[in-house]
Structure formats: structure tokens, C-alpha cells
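F.,

This is the one I mentioned.
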């Protein structure tokens, strides 16, 4: 079995991870005896679209490449912060002298290109100090005004056009005219299930790859190295190491399904189906107040329906496997009973010729 279920960033409630990457598969492996390594190694990404309200299931990641040309700032004056929050001013209304480009001020050698952990902590410090710029507080500006003046809008569009388009679709703000709002968010977990050099866990035959395992990244993953790990684990390591393990199991009997473990899994899936149905009904009964809430409602409802359908399909597969197993065992029992009660072959042969009225051709 191969665990490739991603990280556990969603234990923090809101993260950039897919909703199904919730750590439950890795935790089930841990409960069954697999070792877990470095659970505190969690990476916070500094360039995410901020939280906008309480009707939200996940956060959206904006590429780190934006910090190549974007400048990060907050207003210097608290009255400007309050005016932006209540809609009395736009970011573009703040004069250059009243902007605090705090990364450039604190780290002049690196500016806006400081490492992710440094940029994340600095943004949180400014917002904790009261200078966050969106209505809920935690957000800073990522501004391309200077880059557009220096390079031209066409160059910026060629570099970041798809990201700008995505941001505008989500926030209804044109980043060519107004700065983006960003804030750090949980993005990647470097910890995970312990594996050896063959990507096998401490449970024989159980493998973990990608973000689900703990290997490769240390305490602070570098950009794009998750893609490297996915390629290495999936293409270059696992096809050989798992084949080596299976080559020693070629004559092993099929795993029995009429065991307590399968009974436990069946009961768990039945509970999961019931909980998913109850949650779906709760979402249906909730009144969506805005167009955005309606979109969130639709995503949550569709995700729960898909989860329930998947759980039902898995439950049916477990039941069918058990049924087939029982049927095969019953056929084998009947066959063995038939052999045990059958007459010896020589006596059967003689009786057959006698019934036909023919002398047996052999002695």
C-alpha cells in the first residue's frame, strides 16, 4: 500500500492545501504503528490571499515569484490604516512618503526577497502591531506600481498575467491599478510518516511518498522542491523498491477480509457516511447571504457529496470483497466434502461398467 495523501496542513483549519489533504490517512498509519517524524516542521507561505470572512474553507496561494517585482508595505499612519479598512481610502491614495516598505527597511540587502519564514514573521508582526489593511485585520500590500513604471505594463503582464487574472477573479480588485493584499498561511508540512531510503514505513509493505512522508526537506522547504520530491519518489524510487518487496511475496496467500480489522473499517465507513450526510444537510439548511457565500456553499456541498459517495463506494467494495471471500470459502468447503465422501476411483469404475452391462476392459 502506498500513502500519497499529501500533508497535514489543514489541522490549522485554514491552509492552502486541498480539503482532502487533512492528515487523516497518515494519522491512521500512525495509530497502526507507523512512526511519525518532525510534526512541528510546518512551512508558512507569505504570499496568500488573506482571510475574508467566516464562510471560507481554504486559502488561495499566490506565487512567490510575485515578490521578484512586487514591493510589500503597510501605511505608516494609523489613520490611513483605519481609512483603508472602512473603505474611505484606497491603497493607491496613500502617498509614497506615508508607506512603510518594512522588508526593505529592515533587510536592505535582501529587501522583498527575504526567505519565506522571515517575510511571514514580518507580516504577522506588522499586523499584530495594528497595521493590517483588510477589514478583518491580517493583510499587507504587495504593490507593482514601481515595477510597472520601471518595466511597463506589458512586461508585468507577460510575467504575471495569469496570477493577476486569478487574483482579480477572487477579489474583484485589478492588481494593475491597486496593490494586492497578501498574508501568510500554512502551506506545506515537511514532517510526516517516517520512511527509510526505500520509502517504506516501519510497517512492512506500507510506503509513503511526497508530502505524506518526512524526507528530503528539513525544517524549511525550498520553493519547487516538492515537485522534485514528487518526481523522485514516484518515478525513480518507488517503482524499484516496491517491486523488490513484492518479488519476495509472490507466493503469499491473499489477505483475508473476514477479520476484525475489516469489521472495524466497515463500521468506520458507515459512521463516515452518516456524518457526511448530516453535514450536507446542515449546509443545505444554512442561508447563503452573498454571492461569495453561495460559491463557498456550493464548493462545500459538492465536496461533501463527493466524500460521501467515495465512502459509500469504498464500503460497498469492502462488503463485496467479504461476500466474495465467503462464497469462495463455501465452494472450497463443499468441494473438500465431496472428495472426502466420494467412493474410491476403482470401485466407481467397476460400478460404471456393470451398470452398462459390459465387462470391464481392464482387470
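My design for it:
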Amino acid at each position: 500500500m502506498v500513502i500519497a495523501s499529501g500533508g497535514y496542513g489543514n489541522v490549522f483549519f485554514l491552509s492552502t492545501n486541498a480539503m482532502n489533504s487533512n492528515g487523516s490517512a497518515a494519522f491512521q498509519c500512525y495509530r497502526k504503528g507507523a512512526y511519525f517524524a518532525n510534526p512541528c516542521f510546518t512551512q508558512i507561505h507569505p504570499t496568500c490571499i488573506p482571510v475574508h470572512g467566516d464562510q471560507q474553507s481554504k486559502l488561495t496561494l499566490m506565487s512567490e515569484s510575485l515578490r521578484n517585482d512586487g514591493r510589500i508595505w503597510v501605511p505608516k499612519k494609523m489613520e490611513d490604516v483605519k481609512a483603508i479598512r472602512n473603505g474611505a481610502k484606497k491603497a493607491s491614495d496613500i502617498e509614497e512618503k506615508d508607506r512603510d516598505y518594512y522588508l526593505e527597511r529592515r533587510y536592505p540587502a535582501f529587501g522583498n526577497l527575504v526567505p519565506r519564514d522571515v517575510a511571514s514573521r514580518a507580516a504577522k508582526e506588522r499586523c499584530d502591531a495594528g497595521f493590517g489593511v483588510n477589514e478583518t485585520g491580517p493583510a499587507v500590500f504587495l504593490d507593482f506600481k514601481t515595477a510597472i513604471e520601471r518595466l511597463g505594463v506589458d512586461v508585468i503582464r507577460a510575467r504575471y498575467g495569469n496570477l493577476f487574472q486569478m487574483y482579480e477573479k477572487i477579489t474583484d480588485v485589478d492588481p494593475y491599478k491597486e496593490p494586492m493584499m497578501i498574508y501568510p498561511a500554512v502551506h506545506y508540512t515537511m514532517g510526516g510518516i517516517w520512511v527509510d531510503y526505500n520509502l517504506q514505513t516501519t510497517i512492512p509493505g506500507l510506503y509513503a511518498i511526497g508530502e505524506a512522508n518526512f524526507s528530503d526537506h528539513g525544517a524549511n522547504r525550498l520553493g519547487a522542491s516538492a515537485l522534485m520530491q514528487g518526481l523522485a519518489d514516484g518515478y525513480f524510487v518507488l517503482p524499484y523498491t516496491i517491486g523488490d518487496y513484492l518479488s519476495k511475496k509472490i507466493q503469499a496467500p491473499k489477505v483475508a477480509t473476514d477479520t476484525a480489522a475489516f469489521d472495524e473499517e466497515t463500521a468506520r465507513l458507515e459512521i463516515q457516511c452518516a456524518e457526511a450526510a448530516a453535514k450536507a444537510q446542515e449546509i443545505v439548511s444554512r442561508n447563503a447571504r452573498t454571492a461569495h457565500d453561495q460559491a463557498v456553499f456550493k464548493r462545500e456541498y459538492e465536496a461533501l457529496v463527493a466524500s460521501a459517495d467515495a465512502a459509500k463506494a469504498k464500503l460497498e467494495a469492502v462488503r463485496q470483497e467479504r461476500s466474495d471471500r465467503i462464497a469462495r470459502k463455501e465452494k472450497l468447503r463443499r468441494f473438500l466434502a465431496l472428495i472426502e465422501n466420494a467412493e474410491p476411483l476403482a470401485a466407481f469404475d467397476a460400478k460404471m461398467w456393470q451398470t452398462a452391462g459390459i465387462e470391464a476392459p481392464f482387470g
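The first helix runs from residue 24 to 31.

Talk soon.
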